[in-house]
Design goal:
Blueprint: E1 2-4, H1 14-18, E2 24-26, E3 32-35, H2 44-48, E4 54-56, E5 70-73, H3 94-99, E6 104-110, H4 116-123, E7 136-138, E8 147-151, H5 156-168, E9 174-178, H6 180-184, E10 206-208, H7 215-226
Parallel strand pairs: 6-7, 6-8, 8-9, 9-10
Antiparallel strand pairs: 1-4, 2-3, 3-5
Amino acid sequence: MPGLIGACCADCAHCRDICPTGAIAKDQSGELEFNYGSCIACRVCIDNCPSKALVALPSIYAATSRDDLSRTYVAGGRGSDTAEKEDHQPKGKSRAIKIFAKSMHVREVDCGSCNACELEIAATGNPIYDAERLGIHIVASPRHADALFVTGPVTRQMELALRKTDAATPTPKLIVAVGSCACSGGLFGNTSVAGAGVDQFVGIDLYIPGCPPSPQAILKNIIKLRG
């Protein structure tokens, strides 16, 4: 995902104009704002920046609210602290997080994804990442789940299925939006056939952006969420 070296920026806004998902904007003060929830990490802005002021960041920012996925870059390249908060615990969910600290059963819900996020979620269980050793288990039914991993922008055909899955999951529960489509709609969302993110339909406790987020990013942020 892109980051800005402010001292090199020519303030041409070319990156904003060519971003395919509109993830880059200028705020009221004229500073560049990056919405990492919408970013698909295509590198178009990095590769086409005339002043070479954009660089690839080494990690993915996750947050407990969509607003916290945005980061404003000011003079000198220093970014706002909004997207770097280490506190991943949603308000009112402390009891649930304590319950899931050592064991969490997860049901994955595909709501119109291209399947890239599903591949990365599946990879968390391979011998390299081995999510089972961390107490994270994939289950086949929402009735057995402690958490839902939701991918995709939520197509019209999947809206009812998502709501039913949410209703079938016992409380306390956690709902995680995995991938840029789930966080904001991505390339496919905010149209007549797909929503602009999962939080239009169900409440979200954690947003993990990326197109797709790596298994390492998924596990790292789930561990932070559990405390």
